[in-house]
């Protein structure tokens, strides 16, 4: 039996009438035709060609060259790989995938990778370490070029969200493919207040998320760079440089913590300020809230709401106040609805509708009355074992332990058990 990779192959029947055996070196000086199978149990080094050899067609299911093809050059008129073509160990230098899961590997068809054994798109370039192994990349977000299956191009990202994108997140530069440039955003044109009516407002060409520095001029909608001390104003055609100076009749602008009001829509100027006190309903932390009387229509009137942090019921000196959140006294981070870090004094009745949980000592300096029907007063161990109980209906008292009486004991009913005497002749009750 021969030692082939796919298992042993039986030798042919040498004694058959149609068998021709060669036990010595054989040389063929003319054409040799093989119409059956050719089995060769030989080393690759045993195959040599003394001169250029031409093969018309060679069909190979799998070929693996660990030492490469040795020679000055190799020329292929047509070289076709059916499933997968790898250069480098497992395709760490170059891989071309023709069929999904070809050659026993889990991969996606129709993809080419350089420095990437499993390209994430139609074409991907990855930069890894010294071995170009993508499992150890220098920077997986800045060392890749990709063309995705849906024709998007990315540099520094394997998941471009636009037709062309460099980087990710707020460091991204992107082109939507619809003529919109995005800087600091991977989704230009997706922001609050954006109006997509291009007939009225024109198409959005750029979307910047972040600050912009302009070292020279700004051209307005009329192509003018303006003049010294000019300011920008909007007309029906867009932004224009304006040469006159604003006068006092335009009113004043009001900001709410650095933002012009109203915060939605166009900022307005005001000539009348109307202060209005309103109930906070015990919610929120703002005590002063300025806004326009009408955020959609310019009226010249600003409404400034003032409120405290407590809600109130009713008005005047007797109005009740409340808060709909946790309140701390000497506690900057209250964990309970009322969290007191210190003493608490009550000069009248204190009512508890639920459990009273006392972690420390309790001192009662007056009568203690437990008023309840069909309940028990119990003293328990930390594990919840009763040691002393009193039934509020029957008055039955159970004591799990000794009872020491320092003075007289009055028994108004029957005494169950028997009395024994100690050595000093004092009586002792036993059950």
Describe this entry's structure for a reader.
This protein has 431 residues and is an all-beta fold. It has a domain at 246-309. Helices cover 1% and strands 24% of the residues. It is built from one helix and 28 strands. The strands form nine sheets. Strands 1-2-3-4-5-6-7-8-9-10 form a ten-stranded mixed beta sheet, with no helix packed on it. Strands 17-19-18 form a three-stranded mixed beta sheet, with no helix packed on it.
List keywords for this structure.
single chain, 431 residues, mainly beta
List the helices and strands and how they pair.
Layout: E1 84-87, E2 94-97, E3 111-114, E4 123-126, E5 144-147, E6 153-155, E7 164-166, E8 173-175, E9 181-183, H1 198-201, E10 206-208, E11 231-235, E12 238-242, E13 252-253, E14 255-256, E15 259-260, E16 269-270, E17 272-277, E18 288-292, E19 301-306, E20 311-313, E21 320-322, E22 327-329, E23 338-340, E24 376-380, E25 386-391, E26 397-399, E27 418-421, E28 427-430
Parallel strand pairs: 3-4, 6-7, 9-10, 17-19, 22-23
Antiparallel strand pairs: 1-2, 2-3, 4-5, 5-6, 7-8, 8-9, 11-12, 13-16, 14-15, 18-19, 20-21, 24-25, 25-26, 27-28
